[in-house]
Design brief:
GO terms for molecular function: 2-oxo-4-hydroxy-4-carboxy-5-ureidoimidazoline decarboxylase activity. It is built from nine helices and no strands. By secondary structure, it is an all-alpha fold. The longest helix is centred in the C-terminal third of the chain and has 28 residues.
Length: 168
């Protein structure tokens, strides 16, 4: 997406560009209303502020669009494409797959939601260590961590959407 073009889109079209990054209406509305942005850095900075903090309801809504870590997102949606790209660097040997699967099940039983972590820039071993560590969190701490992970993913996705055009 070209930033100059984004700045001129009507409200529903601009919201549609942002939704795959973080499906939270309050966040999307804040960004759309703040336009025009002078740079991608300005856009990302505002987006980071607008996403802090996310409410429990916003977290639950946003999580509906994220697959389990280690599972391939299906379909041709922008969200699925972004998710596949984020997890593409993970090396998932059989032992890692089994550990992730068991960890995902334990996490879902413990917190009643999918385990979410920013996969970009992390090894599968780091992700497993974080999964084990976060299983020890209380509900409040884990909700904060999930919100932070959602923000990190949203900002990476947002930057990727806009920088992919400017890099050409």
């Amino acid at each position: 997406m070209n930033l100059l073009h984004f700045n001129t889109l009507d409200t529903p079209a601009a919201a549609g560009v942002l939704r795959p990054c973080l499906d939270v209406d309050r966040w999307i509305d804040s960004i759309v209303c703040k336009r025009p942005f002078a740079s991608i850095d300005d856009l990302v900075a505002h987006a980071g502020l607008a996403a802090a903090p996310l409410s429990e309801e916003e977290i639950a809504s946003a999580l509906a669009h994220h697959p389990r870590i280690g599972e391939r997102a299906e379909g041709g949606s922008t969200e699925a494409t972004l998710s596949r790209a984020e997890q593409s660097t993970l090396t998932l040997g059989e032992g890692i797959k089994e550990s992730l699967s068991a960890g995902n099940r334990a996490y879902e039983q413990r917190f009643d939601r999918v385990f979410l972590i920013r996969a970009a820039g992390r090894s599968s071993e780091e992700i497993l260590a974080e999964l084990d560590r976060r299983l020890l969190n209380d509900d409040e701490e884990e909700t904060r961590e999930v919100g932070q992970q959602l923000r990190e993913i949203a900002l990476l996705r947002l930057r990727a959407l806009f920088e992919s055009v400017s890099a050409r």
